[in-house]
Amino acid sequence: CPSDGLFAEGSGYLPQHAGDFEAWILQVPEIIRAAIPSCTEASPVFLCGLSMGGYGALRLGAKYPEHFAAISAHSPITKLEEFRHFLALDQANEMFAQQARDWDVLECIKANHDRLPPLRFDCGSDDELCSGNDEFHKSLTHLGIAHTYNRLPGGHDWSYWHENLPRSLSFFTHILSNA
Questions:
Q1: What is the per-residue DSSP string for 2-14?
Q2: Whole-angstrom Cα distance, residue 1 to residue 47?
Q3: If you placed Cys at 148, which of 17, 86, 120, 173 could pair as Cys (CB 3.0 to 4.6 Å)?
Q4: Cβ atoms of residues 156 and 107 within 8 Å
Q5: CA 25 – CA 152 distance, rounded (Å)
Q6: How far apart are the first and last CA of the chain?
């Protein structure tokens, strides 16, 4: 996911009073197709993000599965209350006041489980979001929803993301080679 312009501390690509970040992300493939003639409507689109962007990738990929060939996330927020780790209290309170049912990643996945593209995510064992990712993995497994989850060494930092981004690229390459 591209940056949300550093809206406050981050938007998670949720619609906010300052803009509809969800709609903006869904327009990115159209912009790329317009800029790169070799990209067509048939070109696969992959969705990947980290931290709040990982939440956005999981939620938007599950909410709009027909738009994406696969979804990957690194250190994703998996429950709304985890936003409180990263947002100022007033921003978190404002965000939760607007909360909609489709903001819950697991609810989006359950609603579209039969249409989901391939899904993977990972989290560092020293990351404050690790227990939430472990629970998310258990929930998906319990529901019989196909996914790949890796609990890896590391924390919630750029070092972890630089080291593990190749996992997403390999995952997407595998999807392309089996298409």
A1: ---TT-TT--TT-
A2: 7
A3: 120
A4: no
A5: 28
A6: 23
Question: Tokens 């890896």 correspond to what residue?
Answer: 152
pLDDT digits 0-9 by tens, 74-122: 999 898 778 777 665 555 555 555 555 567 899 999 999 999 999 999 9
Local structure of 15: helix, strand or coil:
strand
Convert the pLDDT of each residue in 38-56 to its tens digit: 888 888 989 999 888 898 8
DSSP annotation string for 104-173: -HHHHHHHTGGGPPPEEEEEETTSTTHHHHHHHHHHHHHHT---EEEEES--SSHHHHHHHHHHHHHHHH
SS3 assignment for 38-100:
CCCCCCCCEEEEECHHHHHHHHHHHHCHHHCCEEEEECCCCCHHHHHHCCCHHHHHHHHHCCC
Across the chain, mean pLDDT equals 83
Kindly give the pairing relationship between strand 70-74 and strand 148-152.
unpaired
Q: Which amino acid is at 117?
A: P
Question: Which token pair is 146?
Answer: 């196909």
Q: Which residue has the tokens 């990929």?
A: 61
Two tokens at 134?
Answer: 């472990």
Q: How far is CA 70 from the centre of its chain?
A: 11
Over 90: is that where the pLDDT of 133 sits? yes
